[in-house]
Amino acid sequence: METYAIEVVGDLMILRADGGLNSGTGTQLSDHIADLVKGGVRNIIVDCSKLEIVSSMGLGSLLLLHTRIKRVGGEVKLCGVKGAVVQLIRMTRLEGIFGIYGDVEEARLACRAISPK
After folding, report:
1. 13 neighbors 43 (Cβ within 8 angstroms)
2. Which of 44, 50, 71, 90 is deepest in the core (most CB within 10 A)?
3. Where in the chain are the domains?
4. 76 contact partners, CB below 8 Å, separation of at least 6
5. Is 3.30.750.24 the CATH number for 2-112?
6. What is the distance between the alpha carbons of residues 32 and 99, in angstroms, rounded to a whole number?
7. How far apart are CA 23 and CA 41, in angstroms?
8. Are 15 and 6 in contact (CB under 8 A)?
9. pTM for the full model?
10. Over the range 105-116, which residues count as b (16 or more CB within 10 Å of their CB) and which as e?
11. Which residue in 47, 43, 34, 50 sits closest to 8, CA to CA?
12. Beta strand pairing status for 12-21 and 43-54?
């Protein structure tokens, strides 16, 4: 899996996940997110529209991401989740932890709704 930033605005970063999320790529994601949080990112939207598979270790990485961002008062939102990935998230009842949105714009609007004014 590769993740890359497609946009950073203030404390919001939009990442695009591509390929699969497993133990190896999950560790890379966790390390990358730790650096981003140190740099001031507080809210992350993960565009999963190109994410094809998530292992149990990959789910663990997403939960770690959620924990790290929540500690700094932020949120993680997933968008474009489809196929086996969305089924896994629903089966494990993680949609209550991660906001799940149809696309990046819908998730961005949800971030604006919770941002302090």
Report:
1. yes
2. 44
3. 2-112
4. 43, 44, 45, 46, 62, 65, 66, 69, 98, 99
5. yes
6. 21
7. 24
8. yes
9. 0.84
10. eebbebbeeeee
11. 43
12. parallel
Look up residue 36 and give its two tokens: 């981003």
* Each residue's pLDDT expressed in tens, for the chain with a length of 117 residues: 555 656 778 889 888 888 888 777 777 777 777 777 888 889 999 998 988 888 888 888 888 889 989 999 999 999 999 988 888 888 888 888 988 999 999 999 988 765 544
Instruction: Output the six-digit token pair for 11.
Output: 């404390």
CA distance 7 to 108: 11
Q: At what angle do helices 56-71 and 23-38 cross, to 10 degrees?
A: 10
